[in-house]
């Protein structure tokens, strides 16, 4: 695969930066002692709408023509990308049509509405969501933007890692969670161009380990079930991000549900960070395989903080 050029990534950084928060980077002596590594956390839980996905949504909309912006954008999502696209579109004066499954949490639907998203409910199957989004594309002339399998979205997500590497150019590894593959693919591109002897590592639940199996088999695998508290990581890789992941991601470390809960609790109790379960997966992965990273300097992208406070796992 021919990757997007360094110039393309630099252009993305320039385009996205004025529209997003430069999120803080924090450390914890407790986590350093626990892992034996020097760990820095990139806090995308403090990003606009509470997750890294704002970056990709902004970049993708800014790449559209004026005619496309006038007609609006559409996606299907029950989670963070629904909120990200709604807010990004609102900030840029663009209509956002969001297909959400009927069983999506009310709190998420209300957040999308609050950001100006126009919701269409569908049956809670991927086929129904895709059909509803296609219908809006045809009827409204809106441009479909995939939450993770769109190159402009991927490049936008990579700006979190590029900011981290600008502050800490000596990182040996950057960990991210792996769901649909947009964040880890974008991170891997930033590490490829801006890292020095740095590698990209993914964290994934054992209960939804399709990306791990995809790297093993050389083709995109799916999950028959995905019974994990890391609800943001239940989606599959796509044909745009998978080739990047195949070539640029060094490893994916799988973790158990108990390890995810323990890592999430550490982030809340020790670092005082409201993070969702998906954000805790890369920390859980580092703790699980800490012997491999002893003495190294490690970055972790905390992907988001949109958590249901009435349904905490601890």
UniProtKB/TrEMBL annotation:
One of its GO terms (molecular function) is D-serine ammonia-lyase activity. CDD domains: Thr-dehyd (cd01562). InterPro entries: TrpB-like_PALP, TrpB-like_PALP_sf. It comes from the Bacteria. GO terms for biological process: D-serine biosynthetic process. Keywords: Lyase, Pyridoxal phosphate. Its cofactor is pyridoxal 5'-phosphate. Residues 16-304 form the Tryptophan synthase beta chain-like PALP domain. Belongs to the serine/threonine dehydratase family. This is Serine dehydratase. It comes from Cochleicola gelatinilyticus.
